[in-house]
Amino acid sequence: MDHSGHGMNMDLPPFTLERGLEFSPDAFFLIGCLLALVLYGYGVLRLRGRGDAWPVGRTFFFVTGVLSIALVMCTKLNDYGMVMFSVHMVQHMVISMLSPILVLLGAPVTLALRALPVAGRGRTGPRELLLKLLHSRYMRVITHPVFTIPMFIASLYALYFTPLFDFLMGSKTGHVAMMVHFLAVGLVFFWPIMGVDPGPHRPGYVMRMLELFAGMPFHAFFGIALMMATTPMVETYQHPPASLGIDALSDQSAAGGIAWAFSEIPSVLVLIALVFQWYRSEQRAARRSDRAADRDGDQELQAYNAYLASLQARGR
């Protein structure tokens, strides 16, 4: 499909969900999604081949996350997204807020570290390079909240409300680069918050929730700004093709509503995941405490009882 003049295509019929879900692959994302699934599957099979378990739930989340990327980038949703602000906003919200959460719940970094072989003393292999990257200063910077939260916000305001968006939409390469950026920003924003994979920053559960809520309201404000606007705010979508039968301002209002409503979805998903992780962490701590008590005859409890007895003796 030829995207020209800011991606405008005059031949698209009015949008329906059935038409939007027709297969229309973007080569870059199709190859990327297939490669991600193959590599993940290879890692799982490698673990199972040596007798190690890998949770089925993690595989489910990762596959679902990758398929959600393919859904918005390898169907005609991608084509309609070039000419309809509302469809583009669905793409943006899914690929920057839903797909990263699902992919991260699949723990791909943990899988890679477990599946990749150790290179041996004095040698450097893929696993050693991955570890070096995880502990690098670069990774510490791009996953720090001081970087991720402003970047998450700037991906909305600094992109849509400046000429940069129109420039990127003017070519297929620019459009792909923008979508890759949305995905990358979502991954680095949610990575330390989810806390499933190892990383440079492992904040506590309360801090993770604060980081989450620090970014989400800006999506709601952005959506409200689009809905309340009385004129089209993005040049790319000012003059939709007549064949679509849509009004630019109404479509922009719909896009704003999608951005506003979608900000709640990742918040709920992440909160559920964090509460579950917190619960499991407390359960593991309790089991460790019980095992320690079994080993030492519960010396901590005995010491505490002795302390209480000494206080009682002094009070007589």
Task: Give the SSE layout.
Blueprint: H1 17-20, H2 27-49, H3 56-73, H4 76-80, H5 85-105, H6 108-115, H7 126-134, H8 137-142, H9 145-160, H10 164-169, H11 172-194, H12 205-228, H13 248-262, H14 264-296, H15 299-315
Helix pairs in contact: 2-3, 2-6, 3-5, 5-11, 5-13, 9-11, 9-12, 11-12, 12-13, 12-14
What features would you describe in this structure?
- This protein has 316 residues and is mostly helical.
- The chain has 15 helices and no strands.
- It has helices spanning 17-20, 27-49, 56-73, 76-80, 85-105, 108-115, 126-134, 137-142, 145-160, 164-169, 172-194, 205-228, 248-262, 264-296, 299-315.
- Helix 3 packs antiparallel against helix 5 (85-105) and helix 12 packs antiparallel against helix 14 (264-296).
- The longest helix is centred in the last third of the chain and has 33 residues, at 264-296.
- It is globular.
- The protein starts with 16 loop residues before the first helix and ends with a helix.
